[in-house]
Amino acid sequence: MNFEEYMKERLWPILVETAHALVMYPHHKAYAKEVILNEKPDITPAELAARLKMPLGEALVILYELAGEKDSKNLS
Question: Is 48 exposed, middle or buried (0-12, 13-18, 19+ CB in 10 A)?
Fold first, then answer.
């Protein structure tokens, strides 16, 4: 998945800020990292959103941030 297209959008920072403000965001992100990505590393944002019953925008932000964490670990 190429997140650069989403990041070019003017509203991307607002989407990230909104996702971070959601009460369940930290729990969704932790569950996605610890469980879902281990089961299906190539999950799409739409699949993640459906599986956790959350907005697509939240799923986009979670997968973007987790991809960044994975990339930074690979550089270390």
Answer: buried
Residue 22 lies in a domain: yes
Structural domain range at position 52:
11-75
Cα 58 to Cα 4, 47, 73, 74: the distances in Å are 16, 12, 23, 24
Amino acid (1-letter code) at residue 57: G
CA angle 71, 58, 73 (to 5 degrees): 15
| pLDDT less than 50: residues of the chain | none
> How many whole angstroms separate alpha carbon 53 and alpha carbon 2?
23
Q: 69, 30, 68, 28: which is closest to 51 by C-alpha?
A: 28
For residue 18, the model assigns a pLDDT of 98
Residue 6 inside a domain? The answer is no
Task: State pTM to two decimals.
Answer: 0.89
- The pLDDT of residue 72 is 67
